């Protein structure tokens, strides 16, 4: 014998499912809206380079990768960021390079590199705006790195 009476538990379960889905959607939206829109401050001499593990201590050579999953990775030398990105191929939200001569950051899409010596890890490049005299593109710098171990941009 079938009953037409509906259980109150049925509505409670439906409500819990809807609430759970709404929570997941809300968290997803908050996460995507929470990605940085500029460089994140670096704790100088306390954060380790994501590639070589040395402390990030010289602002003139610092670089930063902001990943699509929300992680922020700091590097002590522009060459470390270029190598890390070429080797690991992470999903990148943004890249930032500290200008070698000025106290400001350059977006990765607008960066180029000039020869500088010494640098923290010996890659011999400093970040400048693309189009600066004598500047080379990131792919060109990466291709010319000594001991690049078949790393290609």
**Amount of helix:** 25-40%
Number of strands: 6
Given the helix and strand composition, which structural class is it?
A: alpha+beta
Q: Termini, distance in Å?
A: 71 Å
Multimerization state: single chain
- What's the shape? elongated
Largest sheet: 4 strands, antiparallel
Neighbour order of strands in the largest sheet: 2-1-3-4
> How many separate domains make up the residues?
2
- Beta-strand percentage? 15-25%
Strand/helix succession = HEEHEEEEH
Determine the number of helices (DSSP H or I, runs of at least 4 residues): 3
**Mean pLDDT score:** 87
Structural Rg: 23 Å
The low-confidence parts are 148-153
Account of the 3D structure:
- The longest helix is centred in the N-terminal third of the chain and has 26 residues, at about 10-35.
- The protein has helices spanning about 10-35, 80-90, 140-145, and strands at about 65, 70-75, 90-100, 105, 110-115, 125-130.
- It folds into two domains: about 10-35; about 60-145, no CATH class.
- The chain is about 30% helix and about 20% strand.
- It is an alpha+beta fold.
- The protein has three helices and six strands.
- A four-stranded antiparallel beta sheet has the order 2-1-3-4.
Keywords:
single chain; 153 residues; alpha+beta; 2 domains; two-stranded antiparallel sheet
Please provide a brief summary of the model:
Helices cover 28% and strands 19% of the residues. It is α+β, with helices and mostly antiparallel strands and 153 residues long. It has 2 domains: 8-36; 59-143, no CATH class.
